[in-house]
Specification:
heterotrimer, A mainly alpha, B alpha+beta, C alpha+beta, A: mainly alpha, 2 domains, 74% helix, C: alpha+beta, five-stranded mixed β-sheet, four-stranded antiparallel β-sheet, 16 helices, 21% strand
Chain lengths: 311, 269, 502
């Protein structure tokens, strides 16, 4: 496989995942906003901007922090890399560059998602925003399905590898930002917190039902952290993303004969993850843990680049 | 004449380059009046080199360097023996016929001012050789010589509007002027003792095609024919086509180039 | 793609289905098509046409119109009524095409080599040496197996049952073959009944034939030559076609950055390291192929590619320098060129052409500007062209001035009564002018014409401009495998079995 093809597939995976994540984030924030009395609603949008690292870019627009402008900014504003439309643009660009490697179904999935955003200037009220978000999610689900129906070969593995790396990044940042906002300095993990706020996190990673499955004692921050970090049964948890990266790198190694630093780094990370308990993480400082995790995730990204000569 | 030539080209890059691919026209070849008695091409790093020919029949060396690389020095040196021939070139590889050399190029675009100048310069002359001498002399008289480094991308028309000119500018102007008179003309890149020591580029002059005589070399730098004090390396429609080094690099950053040419003339044979 | 010629009124044109002007019944062998048209309501035809176009849009079979900012995602309109060639018509046409393409190859080999044709005085030398399409940069280099124009698209017009004329040769990177294949796919899906009425030669072997052609011209004795398609990238207007071809041949679609030349050998960068490349079907113009030899500012090209080509280590399809063979200034000499290399009269004539560089021709053209079509020698895509009979007075005068100023840049042709094919217009079926681009492949084992091609149709009533950039559409082009009455349709079962075994 051409190095450039592999690179485009990998980024295709990352951008589709990113678009999907931002869609979920906006969706959950809309809900939170609707449920909260002011100014809690505003806090919700501030944190959405923080998770996507777009606070500064948004401030430049001069718009007030409220549902309509921020939702529009995160969905339709193509001028910054933290929006759905920009992620889909990039995903489609990468997909176009590797048209020959994709099935028509997979390409059509991306193209349809992209078409949703053409010539659309406003998200409208909460209901229309949610409708738009629903169509994005359904299109990315369609793409996901198409990927699973494609041949099990390098093509799908590079896409899924990109998704796994991006997912790990997204979940870690979501947790880091929300945790900061929800648990100001000095407060105890496990204290009384706003139920709606924590539900937002679970909604963003589609884990509301899963949470009930795993934990019987009601909504506790420590459990949410446990679920999102250590439970590999949850597809969007750090543990699951870390495990998936190892699995896909294994498959690639078997097919291409290319073993290397990326495999070692991913296996190493996985081994540590299995041993770590969320209680220890909280005790040792969640923020530092997540920052280290994000840095290591970036390093793995570069190791993958080098191992498969993607540069 | 015995010409001893030493030509160094140094490139420095502000960022390490992943690859370097260069096409070199740095090797003189034998003609009836030019014998290459010793020649070497050396680079200061690991490189693969392949010899070939371009469409104009010039000998080229392809240079392939694997990075990371932050600079390269290409050095050629050697000795060429020349005979006086009144500028007439015999025995060179001639894969393309003279009419091709009536063509304009982006660097030698047809220009009304140059055409008018050419017409004035040859007015009253009927003999084709005399006409070219008149034209060459007129170009020489028009400009003050500039021994500095040639300006890349400067066209004949642009150069014609200035007061000073490098040997490359003069050659472009002469070629453009000759073509406007329907005389095939080509750019020659090579070495000559007429340049100052430490010249910042190889020398450029012109060969025009005259029926019955063939290609005759004129140097507007001196205003006379290019004779035994010259060693020709490459010909083309303009300086870009005969460039000593055409390069492409894979990597970020800027480059700096430094060229150093020494030509010494001595007693031949 | 540049295609046009002039016309008389539509009523005087030969219709490829209905026959001679004024006929109200189809030509006898094509009566099943007449029945099909009569038996299928316009609304149903329109529904199928829209279904086909919806598919094209979804697949992203798009093109860009230069200078049109929002056109990067437009599709070329598709017309549901096919054009049909009888087997005997096709055979005669093929012979002419093969002769012409052989001559084009012989001409290129000669003009960049011994230049016998100039020595013999067949062509004026300044026509070659003064022509920017003659590339001195590659003079003396010879492609592997001596083949230059591996893929030719020859643009034809027709004025009667056996009156075909070459309008233009395309020996550089002719495009449009994806339309031939996708149009057929659409017809098979939407109008399967037509393929029971007619035995239509298959076009879907094109990718196999192309790959075979590519492999046959690989340099040296490589057992399994590595072939690739080189695209300028996915922003190019023909990117769909590039990816479609690579995909259907099962070879890599590469961009310049995927290739590297080392030691005069071309390699592609893969995740497992470098792989040597033997044959490149490049869809990049000569100017951008290699920044060391052609335009130094090219970002699309591969440094060192021409050195690898000169060393005989890679085959470029088509060869660089081919523009001299399909140049409009050369076109008018094609009959002489064909005669010179084949030793016989051309089987396919040119459209009569006045070379405005010749004073007498110029005078004629200036005296008859309202009747003729004037073209820029170096223009393409229907730009820089005057169609006398439909032009305004002002346009005619603009061209008159341009012709007087630079006559050597123009040629002129008479207005022909271009053939028509029934086409679904807003008001129902109506005759519309068409042209035709068949594709001719040349490998080391000979020349072949793919039985089909790209029919372009001028959708505006009376219009002669078929270019996609100027409101033209496309049709499927059937080549019948026999001239007689259609055979009884074989039971579907048998067909499937024979395919399964074959």
């Amino acid at each position: 496989m051409l190095s450039r093809t592999a690179l485009s597939l990998y980024w295709l995976g990352r951008y589709v995942e990113r678009a999907d994540f931002i869609a979920r984030l906006v969706e959950a924030t809309v809900r939170l906003d609707v449920l909260s009395p002011r100014p809690a609603g505003e806090v919700a949008w501030v944190s959405a901007l923080a998770v996507t690292e777009t606070e500064k870019a948004f401030a430049k627009t001069g718009a007030p922090i409220a549902h309509e402008p921020v939702a529009r900014f995160l969905t339709l504003d193509a001028t910054h890399p933290g929006s759905i439309v920009r992620s889909l643009d990039m995903a489609r660009d990468n997909a176009r560059a590797v048209r020959t490697a994709l099935t028509r179904e997979a390409w059509t999935g991306i193209n349809q998602a992209w078409l949703l955003f053409q010539n659309r200037a406003t998200t409208g009220n909460a209901a229309t925003t949610l409708n738009l978000i629903e169509s994005v999610k359904s299109a990315t689900r369609g793409f996901e399905g198409a990927i699973h129906r494609m041949l099990r070969n390098q093509t799908t593995w590079f896409i899924r590898l990109g998704q796994a790396i991006e997912r790990a990044d997204n979940t870690a940042r979501l947790l880091d930002v929300k945790y900061h906002i929800l648990l100001p300095e000095g407060e105890q993990v496990g204290g009384v917190v706003d139920r709606d706020q924590w539900t937002t996190i679970l909604q963003t990673v589609s884990a509301v039902t899963a949470y009930r499955w795993f934990y019987s004692e009601g909504l506790l921050p420590a459990n949410v952290i446990d679920l999102l970090i250590a439970r590999s049964e949850l597809p969007r948890s750090l543990a699951a993303s870390v495990e998936e990266a190892v699995d896909i790198l294994n498959l690639l190694a078997k097919r291409t004969g290319l073993h290397g630093e990326a495999d070692r780094m991913a296996r190493n990370r996985h081994a540590r993850m299995v041993k770590t308990q969320s209680r220890q993480i909280i005790a040792g400082g969640l923020h530092q843990y997540l920052q280290d995790f994000l840095a290591e995730n970036d390093e793995l990204h570069f190791a993958i680049s080098r191992q498969f000569k993607l540069g | 004449m015995r010409l001893t030539i030493d030509h160094r080209t140094v490139y420095r890059f502000s960022e390490p380059q992943a690859r370097l691919t260069q096409l070199l026209r740095l090797s003189p070849e034998d003609t009836y009046d030019q014998s290459v008695t010793g020649w070497s091409l050396h680079v200061d790093c690991d490189a693969r080199m392949r010899e070939g020919r371009d469409g104009f029949g010039n000998k080229v060396t392809m240079l392939y360097v694997e990075g990371p690389i932050t600079g390269i020095e290409i050095a050629v040196s050697g000795e060429v023996l020349t005979n006086p021939s009144h500028g007439v070139v015999n025995g060179a590889a001639e894969p393309l016929p003279p009419p091709l050399f009536l063509r304009a190029t982006p660097l030698t675009e047809r220009d009304d001012a140059i055409a008018a100048f050419a017409n004035d310069a040859v007015a009253g002359e009927n003999d084709p050789v005399a006409r070219m001498h008149a034209l060459n002399g007129a170009v020489r008289k028009q400009f003050t010589l500039d021994e500095g480094r040639p300006v890349s991308g400067r066209t004949a028309a642009e150069a014609f509007g200035l007061k000073t000119a490098t040997s490359r500018d003069l050659a472009h102007i002469l070629a453009t002027a000759a073509r406007s008179l329907n005389v095939p003309a080509r750019y020659v890149s090579g070495y000559s003792t007429v340049d100052a020591d430490d010249a910042p580029a190889p020398h450029g002059w012109v060969e025009v095609h005259i029926d019955g005589l063939g290609w005759v070399a004129f140097d507007p730098w001196t205003g006379i024919c290019a004779d035994e004090a010259y060693a020709r390396i490459a010909v083309a429609l303009d300086a870009a086509g005969a460039a000593p080094v055409a390069g492409s690099r894979l990597g970020e950053g800027d480059e700096e180039m430094d060229v150093d040419v020494h030509v010494e003339g001595g007693e031949g044979q | 793609m540049g295609g046009v010629s002039g016309s008389m009124a539509l009523a005087q044109a030969f219709d490829e289905i209905m026959g001679q002007p004024g006929s109200s019944v189809p030509r006898a062998p094509l009566s099943p098509l007449g029945n099909w048209i009569d038996g299928t309501p316009d609304a149903e035809l329109r529904r199928r046409q829209e279904a086909a176009e919806a598919t094209f849009r979804q697949l992203g079979i798009t093109f860009a119109v230069y200078g049109d900012s929002d056109a990067s995602e437009r599709i070329i309109p598709f017309d549901i009524v096919p054009r049909i060639f009888l087997n005997s018509e096709w055979n005669r046409l093929s012979e002419g095409l093969i002769q012409r393409v052989q001559a084009i190859n012989a001409f290129l080999d000669d003009i960049y080599g011994a230049r016998r044709i100039l020595d013999e005085g067949i062509l004026p030398p300044d026509l070659i040496f003064g022509n920017p399409q003659f590339r001195p940069e590659i003079a003396g280099m010879r492609p592997p197996h001596g083949i230059w124009a591996h893929i030719c698209g020859i643009d034809l017009v027709r004025t009667g049952p056996d009156e075909f004329f070459v309008l233009e040769d395309n020996a550089r990177t002719p495009s449009g073959v994806s339309y031939m294949l996708e149009n057929r796919e659409a017809m098979l899906r939407l109008c399967p009944e037509l393929f029971r009425e007619f035995r239509v030669a298959a076009v879907d072997s094109y990718p196999d034939r192309l790959l075979e052609t590519m492999k046959s011209v690989a340099p040296g004795n490589v057992a399994a030559p590595v072939c690739v398609v080189l695209t300028p990238g996915h922003y190019n207007s023909a990117y769909y076609e590039h990816s479609f071809l690579a995909d259907s041949m099962g070879i890599e679609l590469v961009e310049a950055a995927d290739l590297v030349v080392d030691d005069d050998v071309v390699w592609m960068r893969t995740i497992a390291g470098r792989v040597k490349v033997d044959v490149i079907y490049r869809r990049i113009d000569d100017d951008y192929l290699d920044p060391l030899v052609f335009r130094p500012d090219s970002m699309l090209g591969v440094p060192g590619l021409i050195a690898a080509y000169a060393a005989g280590n890679v085959a470029l399809i088509n060869a660089p320098g081919n523009g001299i063979a399909d140049d409009k200034a050369i076109y008018s000499y094609m009959p002489e060129i064909v005669k010179f290399y084949s030793g016989s009269e051309p089987k396919l004539p040119n459209v009569e052409t006045w070379r405005c560089r010749e004073p007498q021709a110029l005078k004629y053209v200036l005296d008859n500007l309202e009747k003729v079509v004037v073209k820029l020698v170096d223009g393409s895509g229907g730009y820089g062209m005057l169609v006398g009979p439909t032009a305004s007075k002002a346009e005619v005068e603009t061209f008159r001035a341009a012709l007087i100023a630079e006559p050597h840049r123009y040629i002129a042709q008479p207005t022909l009564a271009l053939s028509t094919v029934p086409t679904l217009a807003d008001s129902g079926l109506a005759p519309r002018h068409v042209d035709f681009r068949p594709f001719v492949l040349t490998g080391s084992r000979g020349v072949q014409v793919v039985p089909g091609g790209l029919t372009r149709v001028a959708l505006k009533e009376g219009s002669l401009v078929v270019n996609s950039s100027q409101g033209g559409g496309t049709k499927d082009s059937f080549v019948l495998m026999d001239d007689g009455a259609p055979p009884p349709a074989p039971p579907a079962q048998t067909q499937m079995q024979s395919q399964g075994i074959g």
